[in-house]
Amino acid sequence: MVTREMHLPVPDRVHGPNYQVALADWEQQVAFWTGIARDAAVKACNACEGTGHVLDAPDTITT
To answer: Which residues of 11-37 are buried (b: 16+ CB within 10 A; e: fewer)?
Structure first.
């Protein structure tokens, strides 16, 4: 199991000169931040060979 978190600076309120303007801004903010979360993707590399971790040791030890 893997847990991933995104910490985004999502505003907790919107302002406008009237309700209609504030509502339109709210809907735009919802669409924007939802798109950011939806489109976020984890990029994988093959350094761990599928194990999920990389050993911090050389492949071969020479003496």
So the answer is: eeeeeeeeeeeeeeeeeeeeeeeeeee
